[in-house]
# Entry
Amino acid sequence: FYDPSPFVLRTVMKHVTATATPPVGRAAPPSESAVALGQADVNFRVAVRVRPPLPRECTAGGRCARSYGVEPAKLAGKRGGTGERITVGTRVGGRAAKHDYVFNRVFTENVGNAEVFENLGLPLLDFALSGTAATPRSATLFAYGQTGTGKTHTVSGVEGDGGIVPLVVEELFRRGSSQISMSYVQLYNDDLS
# Structure
């Protein structure tokens, strides 16, 4: 797992907790984020997505040097609840190693982008659209990880398996939503664009 620098964490959190900017030319009260509303326990979720192994990660016989298992796990915190524990097994220098991590949700390598959207993107979209003109709301979803871990696939998708951004746009048009402000940013090598 990649350990981000303090600069990266500050930059990401600045954008996660920022108040949405109203559309140009329209006066609107400041938007409220889930964090600002004190609903971080409810709306702040962390999930992991396991990508299929790359060919270079497997031997010529097709055997891969990794394994994992997923099981329900109790979440820490005031609200508690149930999440999922992923136990990752690897071989390093000929020795087996296992590590456990608990997340709100673990998406295995067989899960498509539609299921990721349904479990993570759709609740955020519902939250953002539940605001009113007097109390607009904002929501943030971001993909984070090392190069080659599947962020672009999850966010943008491929033909036949659209990512979260196209699925959000499709859902907005399906609902006939209007007056929506949306931004898409990329943080790459400490460069925000």
Observations:
- The mean pLDDT is 77.
- The chain has five helices and eleven strands.
